[in-house]
Amino acid sequence: MKDYYDILGVGKNATPDELKKAFRQLALKFHPDRNSGDKASEEKFKEINEAYSCLSDPNKRANYDRFGTADGGGMDFGGFSAAGGFTDIFDDFFGDIFRSATGGGQRRQRATRGSDLRYDMELSLKEAAFGTEKTINIPRHESCQTCSGTGSADGKKPVTCTVCNGAGQMRFQQGFFAISKTCSRCNGAGTIIVEPCNQCRGVGRIKRTRSVSVKIPAGVDSNTKLKMSAEGELGSLGGPPGDLYIFISVQDDQFFKREGMHIICDVPISYTIAALGGEVEIPTLRGSERIKIHSGTQSGELFRLRGEGLSRIGGHDRGDQIVRIAIDVPKKLTQRQRELLEELASINGEEVQKRFSDKVKGFFTGE
Predict the structure, then answer these.
(1) pLDDT of residue 24
(2) Is residue 199 classed as helix, strand or coil in its secondary structure?
(3) Which of 128, 190, 194, 188 is nearest to 156 (CA)?
């Protein structure tokens, strides 16, 4: 009499889980597909299967423990026949492993979310400062209106794929392994379109250019990214659409340089206004204004206009406009201008030079 417990390498008090674990290990080790041409392994594999077929069944195990046979009457059930063959045992204990690895034989193609789209938008500094609304054209795939997205002509419903029987997957047994792959006939959909729609050629969607209105908030800067939900590509098999992302790029301005919420504007003035003072017209984001220049203004001096800069996105506070003075020295002089400047130089030229010479002397002498 064969000792089934000894064949599986377990004790007589082994639990069903211990029996299953022992069988799995031995079956993988001695399976003929892994030991091609090895007669000893083949015989060992048969013994392992015979032993487990008996001990895994509570009634057969009880008879075996009492009478030494599975049926209590000395009947030999050996080999693969006793438990319906090794294929049943394989599917029972190992099928779940391969189904999880391959995705299972009954999984159809899933609905998937549509792709996100990107649009690069250029704005002037003024548009970025105060916000604006623009209409843009976005090419994207949309549901075919002719067939309502079904892909079938005349409203006919798709039929079940006869190759995979609607599963969307094909399962193949190759020796010791079960392999699943997407059905090549229906591409995983499980259904076949018999009469494709003439408009979309059975795809269920077509490419259109859609006009989208975009509200740009005040205060945006280059690299600001705006998201428009559900304005991207159409999802497949009923999946949700993707999103549209607007990437902002703010153009350089001829008058203003931006620094965060502040703007800087270089304003040239004549040397006479710098010396005597007066009013000059300057540009701002809202229009032109006049500011007062005090006498004795130096080149590079700064004037601040509160609240004339840019706002923070979603906020109410605004930055400032900084006016930087640049004294414009003429390259060519009229005869009268030259006479007047020479007269001015004769009055204070030596005084200016003397003050500078005294500073230089003090630098070197430490006075």
Answers:
(1) 87
(2) coil
(3) 194
Residues 6+ apart with CB under 8 A from 38: 32
Q: Residue 176 to residues 2, 103, 224: CA-CA distances in angstroms? A: 27, 18, 56
Q: For residue range 320-361, list pLDDT tens digits in order.
A: 999 999 999 888 889 998 888 888 777 765 565 666 666 666
| CB half-sphere exposure, 119, CA atoms < 13 A | 25
The CA distances from residue 53 to 47, 67, 260, 311, in Å, are 10, 16, 78, 80
* Cβ count near 14 (within 10 Å): 17
Binding residues: 144, 147, 161, 164, 183, 186, 197, 200
Q: How far apart are CA 343 and CA 53, in angstroms?
A: 123
Helix (H, G, I), strand (E, B) or coil at 21: helix
Do the beta carbons of residue 114 and residue 240 sit within 8 Å? yes
Q: Which residue has the higher pLDDT, 103 or 245?
A: 245
With contact defined as beta carbons under 8 Å apart, do 191 and 160 qualify? yes
What is the rounded distance in angstroms from the CA atom of residue 138 to the CA atom of residue 116? 12
Phi and psi for 348 in degrees, rounded to 5? -120, 0
Task: Name the 3-class secondary structure at 273.
Answer: helix
Amino acid letter for position 243: D
Which among 260, 228, 250 is positioned nearest to 241, based on CA atoms? 228
User: Annotated binding residues for Zn(2+), as ranges?
Assistant: 144, 147, 161, 164, 183, 186, 197, 200
pTM for this one? 0.57
